[in-house]
Amino acid sequence: MGLRMDDLHAPTVASGPTSGGATASGTIAKQSLQEIIAQKENLEAELSALGSVLDSHQVDMNTSLTTADGFPRSDIDVAQIRTTRARIIRLKNDHKAVMKRLEDAVYEQFAAGKPTEQLPAQTQRTTVAAAAPVVEPPFARVNAVVPSSPADQAGMKPGDKVTKFGYVNWTNHERLGKVAQVVQQNENHTILVKVLRDDEEMNSQTHDLRLIPRRDWGGRGLLGCHLVPL
């Protein structure tokens, strides 16, 4: 069964003004810089979602989609994977261009004598290293986890807030209906799950989990956990 690509492409990434449109005015320059940062974050979020689509099929950008005889593989949605790969290639090119614009915009800020501390914190990090992955809004909470279940073995804990479940995120979970679909389609296969978890100081930290749904764990269902929509 194919998975709808439309859900993963919303919201679309709008084209913001280039840094070349900024003037000497600090307000206008800051607005332009913020728009470039927002565009970069939107691109990274969509790339992450599309990467999860490939993960749900257990393929990457180079995995063969044909059999040894040259026929399309019947165990995966070849059309969706090809569409996803093409979109990823386009977005990576867009991301490269946006990063160049961001670098130029930051340079202009320094050339204009703007103190470093006035730049957005994420912009400062981008000048020395790649920005941290965008944290998407959670769409489900883990209400309970059965000991020794697949969810427990993956490291899932009560109170975790799910931001990604395979290709499913806050834009397309359909009241967790898509989560059930991913579980059924990936029995005995790894599903990449991202959760937010509060530490002792109540700061949310992102955790990447590898969940393998299976029936032979000794309990009910494939996961051994209870999720509730947010």
Automatic annotation (TrEMBL):
Keywords: Chaperone, Proteasome. It comes from the Eukaryota. GO terms for biological process: proteasome regulatory particle assembly. Pfam families: Nas2_N, PDZ_6. Residues 1-25 are annotated as: Disordered. Residues 33-111 form the Nas2 N-terminal domain. Residues 14-25 have a biased composition (Low complexity). SUPFAM superfamilies: PDZ domain-like. The keyword Amino-acid biosynthesis does not apply. GO terms for cellular component: cytoplasm; nucleus; proteasome complex. InterPro entries: Nas2_N, PDZ_6, PDZ_sf, PSMD9. Gene3D superfamilies: 2.30.42.10, 6.10.140.1710. Residues 142-197 form the PDZ domain. Belongs to the proteasome subunit p27 family. PANTHER family: 26S PROTEASOME NON-ATPASE REGULATORY SUBUNIT 9. This is Probable 26S proteasome regulatory subunit p27. It comes from Septoria linicola.
